[in-house]
Amino acid sequence: MIALLQRVGRAAVYVGPAAVSRIPRGVLIFLGVGKEDGEADIEALVKRICGLRIFDDAEGKINLSCEAVEGEFLVVSQFTLCADLSRGKRPSFDPAMRPPEAERLYEAFCGKLAAATRRPVRTGRFGAMMRVELENDGPATFLLYSRPDRR
């Protein structure tokens, strides 16, 4: 699994003209689920994200977690993070897990993140064409892999 985290002042997900989710200050997570991923990958990412200190403290030092600043999480499924760009000009999406298994793992990730952080976890709509609106705070963007060999 691949998680692209963005520290945000606010974020929202739209399907068509309607907002399906929005958060104030917090972390927007784009989650890519690969065909080799499973429960252990969920556990590894949730463990890394839970308590991850990516927010500024009173001295301006990156030292506080989303939980500490009472932020929220917005998780958006993003199969394109799993794309293979090693050849040619067109990405191959073969490494991405196919639905419905990818959707099951995405939902499990969201549930485990909510349980571990005890913070609100909002979601996009799996498989939908979404428009994501965000105010990147920093900007601060972090890339996490569930397994070191996936980089």
Task: Give the tags.
single chain, about 150 residues, D-tyrosyl-trna(Tyr) Deacylase, Chain: A, six-stranded mixed β-sheet
Write the layout of secondary structure elements.
Layout: E1 2-15, E2 18-23, E3 26-32, H1 39-49, E4 53-56, E5 62-65, E6 72-77, H2 101-117, E7 121-123, E8 131-145
Q: What would you say this structure looks like, in words?
A:
β4 (53-56) and β5 form a beta hairpin. α1 (39-49) packs parallel to α2. The chain has one domain (2-136): 3-Layer(bba) Sandwich (D-tyrosyl-trna(Tyr) Deacylase, Chain: A). The longest helix is centred in the last third of the chain and has 17 residues, at 101-117. The strands form two sheets. Strands 1, 2, 3, 6, 7 and 8 form a six-stranded mixed β-sheet that branches. The protein is 19% helix and 39% strand. The chain is α/β, with parallel strands linked by helices and 151 residues long.
Strands, total number? 8
Global structural class: alpha/beta
Helix content: 10-25%
Identify the CATH homologous superfamily: D-tyrosyl-tRNA(Tyr) deacylase
Compressed to H and E, one letter per element, the order equals: EEEHEEEHEE
Domain count? 1
Q: Taking all residues together, what is the mean pLDDT?
A: 96
CATH architecture label name: 3-Layer(bba) Sandwich
What is the rounded distance between the termini? 10 Å
Shape: globular
Q: Which value, in Å, is the CA radius of gyration?
A: 15 Å
CATH fold-level assignment: D-tyrosyl-trna(Tyr) Deacylase, Chain: A
Approximate strand percentage: 35-45%
The biggest beta sheet reads: 6 strands, mixed
